[in-house]
Structure formats: structure tokens, C-alpha cells
Amino acid sequence: MLSVSHVTKYYDTVKAVDDLSFEVQDGEIFGLLGVNGAGKTTTFRMIIGLLEPTKGKILLNGKPIDYQVTDTIGFLTEERSLLTKLTVLEQAIYYGTLKGMRKEKIEERLDYWLNRFGMSEYKNRKIKELSKGNQQKIQFITAILHEPKLLILDEPFTGLDPINVELFMEVIREFKEKGSSIIFSSHRMEHVELFCEKLVILVKGECVLEGSLKEIKKDYRKKNIHIIGDVSIDKLKEVPGVLDVQNLANEIVVKIKSDKEIDDVFEVVKKGKNVTEFKVEDATLNEIFLSKVGEAYDK
């Protein structure tokens, strides 16, 4: 288990992280979210031991994170951190050795993952000769080569097509099932919704929202109603409590304040024609994120 307890980080007089606390259990995927400059990268660097907190404690399985512990951590950075003049094998040996692995074990694990990602023929190719998507795969492989107990993934799907995004998701879920603690960060909220059980949203280093995704959506209250059919847009907009009506290519989306407005919207829909769908859903995480971040900046 990872425990971040009342952590604050200053750069001279600039407060990058402000009294941040959260826990990531074994076998849990945790979302650490925020706009650029929110403090996510500083938090990651403190977790892996590159930076010392100004205040507070960070513990992994009850122990401070030092060089004896970092061998159990894998980190996929948002920026490319590959040595492009090396071959894929040389890159893996370099990173694996830093994590205390023997060369034979490194090559065995590399062969497994290259085969898993359909990249066996790239083993002796130089990193700079690979596409951006394949470089991202190699960066991911080097982060998981030593089978980490804590895995930090910062924008892991950068440069990937939908097929490879799905493959990454499959592997991440496997690490979860094995009991690894996983911290996931992405600007793509739909990816976060697929993964994260709990999350924290940071603004200017401060937590503005935290908790389980299920409870966050419940507490937000606002709903979206998806309608397929010929329904009067003007009549929908006249319903008290309707915040917005979007007439999209294949459906109408009605945004409402809470579930109290559902029946009134349905009364309008009943008067429409060819209605084949009336579906009520929680607001998306993207909507909640924009709302909470906007509120924080308005203060």
C-alpha cells in the first residue's frame, strides 16, 4: 500500500503541492488528475524518491521510499525517457540492471513482452528507428519489466491507436489482479473512468475533489438524458431544471440539475415521434472535472 500523508512541497517560495493526502491499496487503480501545472509531476517525483517533501510523509508498505524500495516501483513518464541511440535490448538491459535484474532475466522478460505487443522483430532495432507508438510500447515495457509492486502511469496511451490502447488496458488490469498498486494519470477522462476506483483532482497543488468514482458521481447530482427520436428541442429547453440541450448527429442530450427533472423531461419526450431511446446517465467524469477545476480557479 502507498500512503501519502499531508505532503507539501515548495520550490523556494512557490508551493507546488499543498497538504496532499491519499492512499492506494494493493490491487487498486487510483487516478491522480489535474491540468498542466497542477502538481502531478512533483507528486510523482516525490513518490519515487527523486524529490523530498518539504512536509509530510510518503510510505510504501509502511516504509519510507529509498533506494532499497525503488526497485519495486515502475514509472512510465509523460515525456519520452528513452535513449534513442540504443537498441531495444540495450535499453531494456540498462533499465533492468538499474532495478537489480540479471541480464538473463531481463532478456527473458523482454522477449515475453515484445511477443505480447507484437514487436519481436524490433528487439535489436535502435529506438530512434521506431514509430512514436512503438517507442511508447518500449517505454511501457521498461516500466513493467521488473514486475513492480507500485506502478505509476503518466499519460500511458500517448501515441497509441485504439487497438494498442486496449492492449495496454489489458496488461494494466493484469497487474491490478496480481496485487500491484497503480497510479494512473491522464487528460483523457474517458480512460480514467474505465480504470480508476478512486481519484484525486489537483488544482495548483491542492486537492479539490477526492473519493471513489461512484460516490463522486452520486454527489455531483447532475444527470444526462440521452434521447433518440423526433422531440421538440424548444420544449425540452423550457423544462425547469434543464441546464442544456444538445442536438447531436444521432441523439439529443439533455443536461439536468438532478434526477428530480427526469419525469418532466419524459413528459415532453412522450409527445415526440419515433422515440426509440430514453436513457438517464450520471454526468461524465470530464464534466465533473471541468466543473470542479473551474470552481477552484474562480475562487
How would you describe this protein?
- With 299 residues, the chain is of the alpha/beta class.
- The chain has two domains: 2-217, Rossmann fold, CATH 3.40.50.300; 223-282, Alpha-Beta Plaits (2-Layer Sandwich).
- Helix content is 35%, strand content 30%.
- The longest helix has 16 residues, at 162-177.
- The radius of gyration is 23 Å and the shape is globular.
- The mean pLDDT is 93.
Per CATH, the class of the largest domain reads Alpha Beta
User: Residue share in helices?
Assistant: 25-40%
Total helices: the number is 10
Radius of gyration: 23 Å
CATH architecture of the largest domain: 3-Layer(aba) Sandwich
In which order are the strands of the major sheet placed?
6-7-8-3-9-10
Query: Count the strands?
Result: 14
What sequence of helices (H) and strands (E) makes up the elements?
EEEHEEEHHHEHEHEEHEHEEHEH
β-strand percent reads: 25-35%
- Please give the domain count: 2
Unreliable spans are none
Which fold name corresponds to the CATH topology of the largest domain? Rossmann fold
Molecular shape: globular
Distance between the termini: 34 Å
Class computed from helices, strands and strand pairing? alpha/beta
**What does the average pLDDT come to?**
93
Task: Characterize the largest beta sheet: strand count, sense, and whether it forms a barrel.
Answer: 6 strands, mixed
CATH superfamily membership of the largest domain, which one?
Answer: P-loop containing nucleotide triphosphate hydrolases
